[in-house]
Amino acid sequence: MERARTEWLTAMRHDITFHGMLCFSVAVFFAGFLLFVTRRRDLWLRYTAAEAVFFHRLRFPPRRFTDASRRFAESRGFTYLLLFFIIALGLLAIAYAGLYVYVEHTFHGANASNQALERTADWREDLLSMTSTLNPEPVLAPVSGGSACSR
Predict the structure, then answer these.
(1) Structural domain spans, the chain
(2) Phi/psi class of residue 146: alpha, beta or left (left: φ > 0; alpha: ψ in -120 to 50)?
(3) How does pLDDT run across 27-74, given as a tens digit for each residue?
């Protein structure tokens, strides 16, 4: 029973970590892509034009579809959509991080035994040995030359 619970907690931690890192990684990728689309707009426009020419030559998707997708890729709506995805994935990654902290905090003591809470037979001896090593008298450092008043 206890082993099954431990395996379940380990699997849950692994899944939370994996999905949180995946959301964070995709958000970082989209942020880089957004920087490329906004800062290097000339390259982005040349790419979308070359892509449209390629699909027109291929004649696979209808011309209406390729023209509509090109207009959308060149519009401000596309950059706003990328920004929305970055914010949503960033918030989801933060939520996964919070869930991981919650699971670690809630179930951390579930796997530990209570042996640390029980006093052993020699707890008084341990306490006595810890307190007896303290030296209440401070050690004075040797001073050479004396004080200024004694000269």
Answers:
(1) 10-109
(2) left
(3) 999 999 999 999 999 999 999 999 999 999 998 889 999 999 999 999
